[in-house]
What we know:
The protein has strands at residues 14-20, 25-30, 35-39, 46-50, 57-60, 66-70, 73-77, 84-89, 97-104, 110-116, 124-129, 135-142, 145-150, 156-161, 166-172, 179-187. It is mainly beta and 209 residues long. The protein has a domain at 14-144: Neuraminidase (6 Propeller). Strands 1-2-3-4 form a 4-stranded antiparallel beta sheet, with no helix packed on it. Strands 5-6-7-8 form a 4-stranded antiparallel beta sheet, with no helix packed on it. The chain has a 4-stranded antiparallel beta sheet with strand order 9-10-11-12, with no helix packed on it.
Amino acid sequence: MDASLVVDCRNHHGEGILWNQQDACVWWTDIEGRKLWSFDPVTGETKSHEMPDRVCCFAPRAEGGMIVAFPNAVSLYEPGLAAATQIAAFEPGNPNTRLNDGRTDRQGRLIAGGMNEGTGAADSSVIRIDPDGSVATIIEGVACANSTCFSPDGRTMFFADTPEKTIRAYDYDPESGTLGAVRIVIVGADRLLGRVGEEHGPAVRAETG
């Protein structure tokens, strides 16, 4: 496998790369650079969008724009505009936690998890934001949420709390977005950052170490 430089973006902390079928562009976040980036593979055009805060994770919306997890809130955002419309604050009573990783299910819900970047304590959570804007906490006692994604049939949600060095698999109800039984499917990875159980079936993961 060969790799070549496509965009010399020189991000501070690039993450969350995804394909947006609405504009046929690749998007990603430079978290510490406080920018969203897009790349058109046909024209070669690259754009960077200044953001009001760090973008921890995001997803395109069918109506246009993005749903964005900033450190302390989930908001609706239209790239190029200065203002964001907040849906929900995230853990306002804990100054050490912020949102981190997230993923949408096939019904349009955003699953976004937090991390404690102050002390590393396992006192954050994972929340579900439904298409109607309602919010529910689905996992508690989290130190650093990562690797959230879904099986091809949408009935299993994979999740990693990075310091645990494991990947969990939850039974997932696509109709309600609720979690069921959980099992451990990978043990002993050094530091999990990427995805498992992606769209075409085989389990993959990215880790550092």
